[in-house]
Sequence to fold (349 residues):
Amino acid sequence: MIELIHRLTSYNNLRAVLFTMPPEEAHRYALKALQLLYHSGMARHLYHRVNAPVRLWDISFPNPVGLAAGMDKDGEYINALASLGFGFIEIGTVTPRPQPGNSGERVWRIPQAQALINRLGFNSKGLDYVESQIRAHHYDGILGINIGKNADTPLNQAVNDYVTGFRHMYPLATYIVINCSSPNTRHLRELQRGEQFNELLSALVDERQKLTAEHGKHVPLVVKIDPDLSLADLDTIAESLLTYGIEGVIATNTTIARPNMIDGMPHSDAQGGLSGAPLLQPSTEIVSQLHNRLGNQVPIIACGGIMSGADATQKIKAGASLVQFYTGFVYHGPDLIKETAQALQKILA
Ligand SMILES: Cc1cc2nc3c(=O)[nH]c(=O)nc-3n(C[C@H](O)[C@H](O)[C@H](O)COP(=O)(O)O)c2cc1C
Fold:
């Protein structure tokens, strides 16, 4: 019976159907189907979490393979996604107030390259809604919460949005990610540079002192960076991370570059952030460069282009402590979780 259900729910079959739909519609259907599978109790029989424990920030991660931000922006599918075997789940990006994101067509598939381009622009139901979802889930696994700024908040007031999100989510999160690297919110990436970055980190670290006392827990602060940074940018970012004692860095978000390998493919010139296979090498290069600068002082969560166990292994060899993926999950489904966790189990043993 389980074998039959396995075949019926095989991701290759499901993907063939999903890829006939526009990407955002497919996304909604897939998550609803997963929710059904979870509530039916079937997911428990179909998927098993690979045991490959990693200790980081005094937290024991059951395995080093996580779901990247953006798949479950509003925290509506936490338990269902976790049931597939992820070692940790990151939700968001959450903005303080609800906002629809950009209008029009905003996600494209490039199947020949196992890639996606998106210009969603932080469609978010806002902090209050996401909080209610998290509370309703009673999830006891590792939960990262990724926060951002509203599109209509001027850049010089962005710090307030991050502090608001940080304060709101602090009691609910295992770790909190500051997303200042999405290419789809105007000027957002400028926050990673120079004094603005230091002001942001300084405000969050100050706020955390109060929150640690208030809640009796210390929540690690993690910064997510983009893959289009220059080596000089990486120097100053690394210096700031060390100065402010930031506990982690996610490398990387999507890229605005268009590698030669996707030249001429349908949608390759769509505006937005490119993710998936073409991002693997540039993103891994950022992991290596960061690791050279940070050593083991600031752990790196590698994200970008992971499509196989070998890709995940490459990220760990470049200096990462944990990995995450989004686009690989769209192209390969839950099997990729098992494959990557098993590959990492071998090298981390
Ligand atoms: C459709 C889509 C939506 C995304 N939304 C977010 C987001 O809200 N916040 C964020 O930090 N990253 C977001 N990302 C970026 C991913 O978390 C990840 O950093 C990036 O896609 C590279 O990893 P991948 O190649 O495994 O997809 C999104 C990616 C995609 C494809």
